[in-house]
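Sequence, please.
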């Protein structure tokens, strides 16, 4: 039992001798007795409360939870391309947005985040058809994720879909943008919760995965530990946000599909042998501290996916790519990984024929990776611009380092190339050239590469380490087993 003193100002019109006050963090204050009130509407009371507090509740008052706030934005106060209707019961406020049934006929609001941090957008909707309606959730014009608004059985049956993301302090345009001719589901409101804590996961996420809403994976979900292929497969497919801890060596084959909002974290020594992870039509995925070996397709494939962070993993002796990213994927950071004893490292864009899906996307940052005697594709880039390759270590790379092709734009800076005959070049195989800007790289027993043209500017903050120090920092830090997560 802790005694605390507080002043509260509340509208008063109670008869009861008891008052309870809910606190952030789940604690509650219950006043054992309250003075009689005289009917005033507002009254300031000084109260000595006998408070049964769970451990940490007072801390919660001054900590991050105290800042968490939810604000409702009704459809009728936003901008709806369609009509605000009220003919289907169960909505809140004065109506809902019945969007015109067409591609792009969306609804949007200006949302204010009082503080930077983890945030969520809960979207209340009804879809009285039997076909899911597909819409992008866009923040300031970037697609954070694409949601399927499943049929709810009736236009009067409302349900909620939630997106997790980071929001910086300030105003943001949040838009639900339908991508098919069916248009939007009917939209009642969005509840935006902000101030949920550190805007980035620990460990220093930098680069493209900080953009488009940022990448938090499973966030603070309580972890599930898996040590078999079947348990891993099932945890990866969950539709809920999840933190999945991989323990021991998991033997498997083929590709295991990863759904949205997942952190896949290796315990010390965690190994995935024989198979790979397929991040497909997903967003907000983190993969850290895992050794991949002997995969029979790709170790990690990212397609039709956004907001992915692949960090501190090791890759050896697989069949196809170690980390392949393709098919309009966007906002990805690949950091502090080690590839050794392997041929095809990192493909970005799979086909010269895929410009329609890929131009304007495939924005990826590769930093502090150790290409340790691996052969080719570090990365091999089609279409993406700007792709950012900085502070990587290329040691005895046999084939080539970076290739910029098919109109891609790649910024190659602060890398350390040693015993690497072909550090970077334009075009590759049948693929036509892209552009490449090289600066501040170090070459040891390696020629300078082929650069040319200009590259779009990098939108995020980052610090380039002195390239002369990159060999030491990357050999000490890259790969699985160098961090504990
Ligand atoms: C019906 C329904 C609308 C809904 C529309 C649709 O007309 O009454 O509320 O928006 O179908 O299919 O989008
Ligand atoms: Ca409609």
């Amino acid at each position: 039992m802790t005694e605390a003193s507080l002043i509260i100002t509340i509208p008063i019109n109670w008869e009861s001798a008891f008052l309870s006050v809910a606190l952030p963090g789940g604690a509650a204050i219950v006043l054992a007795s309250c003075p009689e009130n005289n009917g005033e509407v507002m009254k300031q009371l000084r109260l000595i409360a006998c408070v049964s507090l769970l451990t940490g509740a007072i801390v919660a008052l001054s900590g991050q939870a105290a800042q968490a706030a939810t604000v409702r934005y009704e459809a009728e106060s936003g901008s709806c391309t369609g009509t605000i209707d009220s003919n289907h019961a169960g909505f809140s406020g004065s109506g809902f947005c019945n969007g015109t049934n067409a591609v792009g006929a969306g609804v949007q609001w200006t949302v204010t985040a009082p503080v930077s941090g983890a945030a969520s957008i809960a979207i209340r909707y009804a879809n009285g058809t039997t076909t899911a309606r597909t819409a992008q959730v866009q923040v300031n014009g970037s697609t954070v994720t694409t949601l399927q608004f499943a049929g709810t059985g009736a236009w009067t049956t409302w349900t909620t879909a939630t997106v997790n993301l980071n929001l910086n302090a300030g105003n943001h345009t949040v838009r639900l943008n339908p991508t098919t001719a069916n248009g939007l589901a009917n939209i009642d409101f969005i509840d935006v919760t902000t101030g949920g804590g550190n805007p980035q996961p620990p460990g220093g996420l930098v680069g493209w995965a900080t953009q488009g809403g940022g990448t938090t994976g499973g966030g603070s979900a309580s972890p599930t530990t898996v040590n078999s292929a079947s348990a891993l497969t099932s945890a990866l497919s969950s539709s809920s946000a999840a933190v999945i801890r991989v323990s021991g060596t998991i033997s498997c084959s083929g590709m295991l599909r990863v759904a949205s909002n997942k952190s896949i974290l290796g315990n010390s020594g965690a190994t995935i042998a024989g198979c790979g992870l397929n991040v497909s039509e997903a967003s907000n995925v983190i993969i850290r501290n895992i050794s991949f070996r002997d995969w029979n397709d790709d170790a990690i494939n990212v397609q039709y996916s956004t907001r992915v962070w692949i960090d501190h993993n090791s890759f050896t002796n697989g069949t196809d790519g170690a980390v392949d990213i393709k098919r309009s994927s966007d906002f990805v950071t690949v950091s502090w990984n080690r590839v050794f004893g392997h041929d095809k490292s990192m493909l970005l864009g799979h086909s010269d024929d895929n410009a329609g899906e890929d131009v304007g996307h495939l924005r990826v940052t590769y930093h502090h990776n150790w290409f340790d005697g691996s052969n080719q594709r570090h990365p091999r880039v089609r279409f993406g611009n700007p792709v950012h390759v900085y502070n990587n270590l290329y040691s005895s790379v046999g084939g080539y380092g970076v290739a910029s092709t098919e109109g891609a734009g790649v910024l190659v800076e602060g890398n350390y190339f040693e015993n690497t005959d072909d550090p970077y070049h334009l075009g590759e195989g049948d693929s036509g050239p892209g552009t490449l800007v090289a600066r501040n790289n170090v070459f040891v027993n390696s020629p300078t590469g082929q650069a040319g043209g200009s590259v779009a500017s990098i939108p995020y903050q980052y610090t380039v380490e002195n390239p002369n120090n990159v060999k030491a920092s990357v050999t000490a830090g890259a790969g699985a087993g160098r961090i504990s997560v």
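Residues 82, 98-99, 101, 183 surround calcium ion (ligand 2) (CB under 6 Å).
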